[in-house]
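Model: You mentioned two targets. I'll fold them one after the other.
Researcher: Yes, keep them separate.
Model: Target one:
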Amino acid sequence: MGQRGAGAPRALRGAPLIFRRRSRFAELVERQLDIFAEDERELLSDMERAERAYDTATRDDADEAYGNVQLLLDAGADRLADVRNAYAATLDEVVATTYEEAFLRGASKRFPRLIGLL
């Protein structure tokens, strides 16, 4: 009897390989997000500090600390949306939709806290 659960000892003949094709905008979006991170470094740092302050806030200070976090997250999401919208405006509607989907995928990996606000 053979081993169970060890998997196939070699690739199976005829087994299809599945390749995920990168979006045609993936490299562009990656560069745009790099530039965003550099340009908004101070805002991103402020967000992290505000979240830490909220995490350590007393019960009396929690509401104000949460409000500060939300203001900074809203500002970051607005600026991220500005990057997306500025480029999308240069594209026709169908291509813009493809770009926006690629941007959302990239941004959700890089800036997940901002995505829900886009």
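Model: Target two:
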Amino acid sequence: MTADEAFLQDIIEHPDDDGLRLIYADYLDERGDPRGDFFRVQCRLAKLPEDDLRRERELLGKHKEEWLGPVRDLLGPSGRCTCFALGTPNNRAGRGFLVQRAVSR
């Protein structure tokens, strides 16, 4: 198991523990991965009013296409996704991670 896989497994097993997300964010920062900053921002946003989304939007605008990577095919024929945005009707993000995707036929 890689270090990334171990972090992700811990986060999955303890979904309400932001401490694990923040430790993983530090790990990603040390490797120059901007997801670390994004995870940290989403942990803060989860505790802030909805109108404070500037930094989240900035990071998504710059990195969303790269971060979607292997899940892009699951997002539907349009290839468009708002899945990292908090509170979208078809997709939910949980402090940096896609946690739910609604699919309709």
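Researcher: Noted. Anything on target two?
Model: DSSP finds four helices and two strands in the chain.
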